[in-house]
## 1
Amino acid sequence: MSKQTIPFKKSPIEHDPDILSPSNLFDLLPKDHDCYIYKEILQQLDTTEVERKYSPEGQHAYHPKLLVSILIYAYSHGVFSAREIERRCGQDLAFMYICEMHCPNFRVLSDFRKDNSEFFHDCFKQTVRLAIELKLASLGHISLDGSKFKANSSKHKAMSYKRLKEKEAELTAEIEELVEQAARCDREEDAAYQERTGYEIPEDLKHKEKRLETVQAAKQALEEREEALNPGKTIEEKKQISFADKDARIMGKQGNFDYRYNAQISVDSDHQIIVGQHLSQHANDKQEVAPALENVRAATDGRLPEKMSADNGYLSGDNLEALEDSGVDCYIATSKGEKKDETPLDESARKLLKADFEYDPKEDCFTCPGGQILVVVGETKNGEKTYQGRAETCAACPYRSRCCQSKKGEARTINTDDKEPLRQRMNAKMEQQEAKDVYKKRKSIVEPVFGQIKNTGFRGFGVRGKEKAAGEFSLVCAAHNIKKISKAIIKGFVRPESGKLVANPI
């Protein structure tokens, strides 16, 4: 039986030898490759601000527009390492097209990323304004959310405030002892040191002094950081600081704690464009609305959204006051304790929640279901208030077993702050079906954006310090927006025209 010839595909080189030497190298890329679209978008960026930092003297530098284009394209495609970006620029056709056949050294890319935080903030704002101009964002409804990203540090290279103070005292005592030892050696004619230089103790002293300087610098940085975040408050002994990134703070939940930053984004509902972003050192979101609104205003030439939605983590007096002052129509989820339970108290065995107590804004007091009035018995400088009834009245109340939790027999207390009227208004608002319908959209607006950012591979910062990390996060958000604009071009919402991008009529 004769062997059959199997018709395998032949090499295209046999049919077209010129394929190995095309007239244009980039003809090898598919005509619809996204690098062409990115090039159109990236040309719209204004780099005048950073160009002023360069000097005409010395060796010619890479143009800032080229470097930022490379970084944005890389971040959009999940490449964050400066060494890997350099490698791609040397062998990946799409990267070669973006970098115009240049191949910047990884240190050039890394230094540009570290040294231009302010420019990246401006770069992000440019993407927001471009998106608004292209009708990809209208500021009709934005959603605010936060997510933790790992700092460029290790929790194993850190100390608590208590340990820093102990170590400072310990090293100070050791240095004093070493200085005294050195003085004794200079005074005494000890035979053991006759043939030696006597530098052993000073070297040890130098090492201890350097360690003391490091500890003192970390202690001072922790004190300054905590004073800025919590003015006037006593620093807790357990508060920690990293020696690598002194601005980062321990954040996490369910045992997963590490040095992180709290990244905040405000996302427009139209095409998931990020219209505002900032980096926070707070582990929770109770103080983030005011800076979020300010950053939206800065990125949109003074405009604010018509509506804003946020999850229950933002339900705080400070946030509600910021929204009240701004005039933005806000929708913030209320917690279980704040929501009214329609089940009659006499027909159920449920516990009494804060929502079961009626608040009187004029008298600033609560009335319990049993008719007792809870008045203010304590108030802090931060506006936190404690309301309490009378123990003897609570003892005779039929709801006592479901209301009072004190083992000592004390009366029921309610804790809130001086913004309780704002809380009450938000509670009432979120009970309405119209408000629930608006809030329901929040998940599909903002949460997928964090998913998209993390799915590209960005889980932590490559730079240290809040200022530089904030610059890198601006770069991340700018890359996200440009990716969205790129997709809008592919879908036909936007088209290039005469070197500019214009919105297609819908």
## 2
Amino acid sequence: MKIDHHAYCLVNVKSDQILVTLEKEHKIAVRGNPDFFHEKYETFTIDESRRIKEIHSSKSFAEDSKRIFIIECKSMTVQAQNALLKIFEEPNQNSYFFILAPSSGFLLPTLKSRLQIIEGEKEEDLSEAKKFLKLSMKEKITFVDDIAKKISDEELEKSYAIEFLGALESAVAENGVEKNKKALRAILKARDYMQDRSPSVKQLLEFVALSL
């Protein structure tokens, strides 16, 4: 993998893969290197963005050293993404960013346009989403309410709902983008709001179900 861009989103790429690539192909130390940042988050928030910006604004420890920022997350709040826009647009010299996520669907278009997207080999499983589309409205509401309850009870992570919406978007789009504009807009809107720190998962999923 060539590092010829300042910011990447690696979808379904394991951190071990990028670490090996950085060490073996680019001779960048990933252990004991003060210019190497690697953290994992369930949801990347505005507080984490501010921390990244603070580190980015400081001088590198070694002269001409490449500064590597690896952010592993399952979702990222809208506020956090907006806070990253400036440094992704005008990064310091020798600064490189890698967002590792199960999907790029949660990214705002403004941030996504500043990233080079690299997809892993995992294929999106649309079977559950396609079954959902065939349910009656009552069954759809019951289905999404069950997801919301399991997330509330911490049996499922919020990322499950985000991934489900991403698969649902793909399944709906397969049936025709033009004739399903309303549904696709609803899914996109719900997915954006789902990035907030404390979204109403039940309300957002019901909104989508009622829009299909």
## 3
Amino acid sequence: MQIGSADYQTLVKRFSKNSRTAKNTLNAFWTGGLICILGQALLDLFDSQKHLTHDEAVAAVTVVLVLLSALATGAGLYKPVAKFAGAGTLIPVTGFANAVVSAGLEFRSEGLVTGLGIKLFTIAGPVIVYGSAASFIYGVILWIIKTLA
């Protein structure tokens, strides 16, 4: 059965729900903002510690946010918040932690290596590879600019 472009567009309009763009944007904005406020509060707390440098405090904030996101995902708390907030929970580092843990939880019944381990690296692998490649490329570009300047 072949369907034409115009017929397809008619079907899409008929069965698609209208998006509440303004409401979704606002929810994403303030939820993402709350995550960032939590991160800033943690940074201020860690910066006030005499035994941590600022760079160590920044790293500690990242670790804590990833840990909290992973725990919330495992406890089933992250999904309803993400459904409400949309991209507000996906953009910070918490979204990456949620994606990795969710994949691991989904396939844990297949075993530690074939299910959990493989799925964790299926999600995290491309991020690590592309992140490393992008860092290298940006580094080369920066080196070229500094050399020519």
